[in-house]
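Response to reviewer comment R2.3. The reviewers asked that we include at least one raw input/output pair. We reproduce the pair for Phage transposase here without editing.
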Amino acid sequence: LKVAHPEHGRPFIPEVTLIMDTSCRFIVGWSASLAENVLAVADALRYGVERYGIPAIYYSDNGGGEKNWMLDGDITGMLPRLGIKHQTGIPGNPQGRGIIERVHQTILYKIGRQFETYHGTGADKDTVRQVSTAVISLDKAKRKGATQLTPKQQWAVGKLLACFLVFCQ
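Raw output as returned:
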């Protein structure tokens, strides 16, 4: 799931943290960040706790954003202070988190493909159509020697510039 980086425009994979109630497959919390980190995980947990209450168990992988003192510290950790038992998967066994991994493959890709900045196959057809018509409109304006561009054409200039930067890497 590659999209354009907000700072430099080159493709990157954002870190999306999902908190799921596995008994009913409902996403109770989420957060998006430029990289995996404890603040994104804490933000996703906060979102879920505010809306749906404190869970009894929090199951996660052993990544740096998931397994750290801010979440797990005996005295200062967020999870022990809330009375949440933190269980982690077996290192090197991603199949133990198959439910959430499947959600990443379905929901997040479906959402990501709707953005104009999505880089990859299977982009949303409406988004592809909008980008194509904007680029065609820009091309026609340039051929006619237009000095003023419409907002749609100006947006196409930015889109083409982002694509150009990707190819120049």
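Residues 165-169 have pLDDT under 50 and may be disordered. Helices lie at 38-52, 69-72, 78-82, 98-112, 125-143, 151-167. Further pairs are available on request from the corresponding author.
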